[in-house]
Design brief:
The complex is a heterodimer of chains A (582) and B (139).
Chain A: E1 6-12, E2 17-23, H1 26-29, H2 32-43, E3 57-60, E4 74-79, E5 86-91, H3 95-101, E6 106-110, E7 117-122, E8 125-130, H4 139-149, E9 156-160, H5 163-166, E10 174-176, E11 180-182, H6 187-193, E12 196-202, E13 207-208, H7 214-226, H8 229-237, H9 242-249, H10 271-277, E14 281-283, E15 293-303, E16 307-315, H11 317-323, H12 332-344, H13 349-364, H14 370-373, H15 382-394, H16 398-403, H17 407-414, E17 422-423, E18 425-426, H18 434-442, H19 453-459, H20 465-485, H21 497-507, H22 510-514, H23 516-533, H24 546-549, E19 551-552, E20 555-556, H25 559-581
Parallel strand pairs in A: 1-6, 7-12
Antiparallel strand pairs in A: 1-2, 3-4, 3-6, 4-5, 7-8, 9-10, 9-12, 10-11, 14-15, 15-16, 17-18, 19-20
Helix pairs in contact in A: 2-20, 2-23, 7-21, 11-13, 12-15, 18-19, 18-25, 20-23, 20-25, 23-25
Chain B: H1 9-17, E1 21-22, E2 29-33, E3 41-45, H2 53-57, E4 63-65, E5 71-73, H3 83-87, E6 94-95, E7 101-102
Antiparallel strand pairs in B: 2-3, 4-5, 6-7
Classes of the chains: A alpha+beta (582), B alpha+beta (139).
């Protein structure tokens, strides 16, 4: 509902009770990323570890969620088990619209339930229900069980964790409505530490429409732009997996733990190949007509004669790179089987794939033995990876438990830090060059989505440090505004600052519309301030040697340029965080 | 509907344009997964029954038979008894917290918002020989 304050439900899992809190700040922090940082300042504890029951798990949406198309994502904020610092992860599914129709701008989950439980919220509902029988269940079974337990098909969102989250893996994700994830930086472990197996959000509220004449007109215009041929072609047709062939073609696809950046054998896992052979259908997040979710299938023979089961598996560029090219897989169905195996366990696919790629090379080099890996990891060997995924999710031995805390932590203990493909966290699927490596290593979420460094690399051959870092800071600022709205970043071509201001004005947020540039500036600072306060030091970030050993279409990576970029970006980040403190 | 991707754009358009609400419930077409997301989606919408069981069940004349199938609803005659929703064989009528009913009026305004061409307006047998303007919701 349009209102000049935030309506936040704060739940205490220990007591099973909550309170609806009204908070000022719409004109200062907007929602989403900005609201989450504000709520962490109020409810979080920078000085306590991530798994302290006092730490909140925060879900936040934006002022235009549900009111305009592609305003369809949710920000999840928490203190991360990966680095014990403030972190964000973003996902769509039906989570954003369900929160909107539950009449909540944010949900703050505090405390720890005495026994494994699930939380149900709606516009007229709050319940913490003991559910010990769900503990240990994989993601898919948990989802099916929660659907039966809490009816409301189509208009609810179901968030859940798998075994990885239960055992505290820093690579554990929160699955959202089967096909989407709060994937990175261990949000799943935060739920696990709270004994919270699932969250059901019932989107059962109904609101009056904004009465302005502009709103329906503007909606129509934005909708038309977002569904024009270009948008649909880029994200709906082949979707993000189109990048596999493109990056392979410019020698920028990470392959076999980034030992290569191009290989003809990856022809078997291109977006075109996935679409031709495996694509069953498209799906969409609620409130988004683009429908970028690509769903393929795996078919498994579980018994002779001819006894099969099948499952539907969503795919994107990132999972394809992580358990495909990074693990030496050259067949699309094998990649889908691995995505499915990882997802079932509640592990983040990107992190798990990159971690096992490092473990494979470490085993090859004799740094690890099978005493640690338990299975003979080998690039291209699907079966051993399937077993390793399970070991990683369940923390089968000391090695896998440490690897689950982050590849660099395992490498620091066993050796092999120089070829650990870690840029703040396990790398994303772009080996485009220096600007991307620095943008992920130092970026707020350590994500390729913090700013488009990968795109800058592909468009610039010059090595101007000031220009490149200036671009990263500017691009991040624009994206922070979008993630405070919380728009899907695929809509960034349509939702310019001017269009966002028009949209805000049309639903009644006039002051915010007038100050939008200044507000995005201050949210960027607030976020960095929050991150720095929990211990992040951008000057301490290292970029492993492997990233300087590769050759892309631009030639060999320039160590001097990389180092200068890192130093300048760290300086700018400290400046951003410091300004706000002053 | 086998093409449906679950974006809810149709429901939200109906709520916005016909029933003047921000809602995916107060709409003449509502989307639900047919037994979990992995089995696809189904639309809960009026099948244009003729005679319409909901109109027959309505005790106050708020519901009347629409030519060619479906119903015309006059909300000012409605006493919020909920009998229409009970009578609907396909769960196409949504009742809000005050039992106010919301049902498809066969106006077609959801159709252009479907990005996957799941929806189209077709004439029923009874409509084939006549031209009819889409009705507005009578409040």
């Amino acid at each position: 509902m349009i209102r000049d304050h935030f309506r936040v439900l704060v739940v205490d899992l220990a007591t099973g009770r909550g309170s609806v809190v009204s908070l000022e700040g719409r004109d200062a922090v907007v929602g989403g990323s900005g609201l989450a940082a504000m709520l962490f300042a109020k409810y979080g504890r920078a000085d306590k570890p991530w798994d302290d029951p006092a730490q909140p798990l925060i879900l936040a949406i934006g002022p235009l969620t549900g009111y305009f198309p592609l305003m369809s994502k949710t920000v999840c904020a928490f203190k991360s088990p990966y680095h014990d610092q403030y972190a964000e992860s973003h996902a769509g599914g039906r989570s954003a619209l369900s929160l909107r129709f539950a009449d909540l701008d944010a949900l703050v989950i505090n405390g720890r339930a005495e026994r494994p439980s699930c939380l149900v919220v709606g516009s007229r509902r709050l319940e913490v229900r003991e559910a010990h029988y769900l503990w240990g269940m994989d993601l898919q079974t948990t989802g099916k069980t929660l659907r039966r337990m809490f009816p409301g098909s189509g208009h609810r969102s179901i968030l859940r964790i798998g075994p990885a989250g239960e055992q505290g893996s820093a690579m554990a994700c929160i699955n959202v409505d089967t096909n989407r994830h709060f994937g990175r930086l261990g949000a799943g472990a935060v739920m696990g530490a709270k004994h919270l197996k699932g969250i059901v959000i019932l989107g059962d509220g109904i609101f009056p429409l904004p009465l302005t004449k502009e709103y329906p007109k503007l909606f129509q215009e934005v909708y038309r732009k977002l569904t024009d041929t270009d948008m649909m072609d880029k994200y709906h047709n082949l979707g993000t997996p189109i990048n596999v062939a493109v990056l392979n073609g410019i020698r920028a696809l990470p392959i076999r733990n980034l030992q290569q950046t191009s290989d003809e054998a990856t022809d078997g896992i291109t977006g075109e190949r996935f679409a031709d052979a495996t694509l069953l259908r498209h799906m969409a997040c609620a409130g988004c007509p683009v429908g970028c979710i690509h769903v393929g299938f795996v078919r498994e023979k579980f018994m002779e004669p001819n006894q099969y089961l099948y499952r539907q598996v969503p795919y994107d560029h990132e999972p394809i790179f992580a358990v495909g090219s990074m693990l030496g897989m050259t067949d699309a169905f094998t990649v889908l089987a691995l995505i499915d195996a990882v997802d079932k366990q509640g592990l983040d696919v990107m992190s798990a794939g990159v971690a096992l790629a490092w473990a494979t090379e470490a085993l090859e080099k004799g740094i690890l033995s099978e005493n640690e890996t338990l299975v003979p990891l080998k690039f291209g060997d699907e079966q051993t990876y399937r077993q390793a995924m399970q070991h990683l999710a369940t923390g089968a031995n000391e090695f896998y438990r440490l690897l689950g805390q982050g590849t660099m932590k395992a490498a620091a203990y066993y050796g092999g830090t120089e070829f650990a493909c870690v840029l703040g966290q396990e790398m994303a699927g772009y080996a485009t060059g220096e600007v991307f490596f620095v943008s992920q290593a130092l970026g707020f979420r350590h994500s390729h989505l913090d700013s488009s460094g990968y795109s800058y690399d592909q468009k610039h051959t010059d090595k101007n440090v000031g220009d490149a870092v200036g671009f990263l800071v500017r691009d991040e600022r624009e994206r922070v505004l979008l993630t405070s709205m919380v728009a899907c970043l695929f809509a960034r071509g349509v939702y310019s600052e001017a269009v966002l201001a028009d949209c805000l004005r049309s639903v009644g947020y006039t002051t915010l519309a007038e100050n939008i540039a200044a507000v995005s500036n201050s949210i960027q600072k607030l976020r960095w301030k929050t991150r720095l306060a929990t211990g992040f030091d951008p000057r301490a970030v290292t970029i492993p040697k492997r990233f300087t050993e590769i050759t892309t279409w631009k030639g060999k990576v320039d160590e001097g340029y990389l180092s200068a970029l890192k130093e300048e970006y760290a300086r700018r980040i400290l400046e951003l965080g410091k300004d706000e403190q002053g | 509907m086998e093409r449906c991707i679950g974006c809810h754009s149709c429901s939200l358009a109906c709520g916005r344009l016909v029933h003047k609400c921000l809602s995916w419930d107060t709409a003449g077409i509502r989307i639900a997964s047919s037994g979990g997301l992995s089995t696809g989606f189904e639309a809960r919408t009026c099948l244009a029954c003729n005679p319409a069981p909901c109109a027959l069940a309505c005790p106050t004349g708020a519901y009347s038979q629409r030519k060619g199938g479906g119903v015309i609803v006059k909300k000012n005659l409605c006493i919020r008894c909920g009998r229409c929703a009970e009578a609907c064989p396909v769960d196409a009528i949504y009742l809000n917290a005050t039992e106010e009913p919301f049902v498809c009026i066969h106006c077609g305004r959801c159709v252009p918002f479907c990005p996957h061409d799941c929806l189209e307006m077709v004439k029923t047998a009874g409509e084939a020989d006549q031209e009819e303007e889409p009705q507005e919701v009578a409040q």
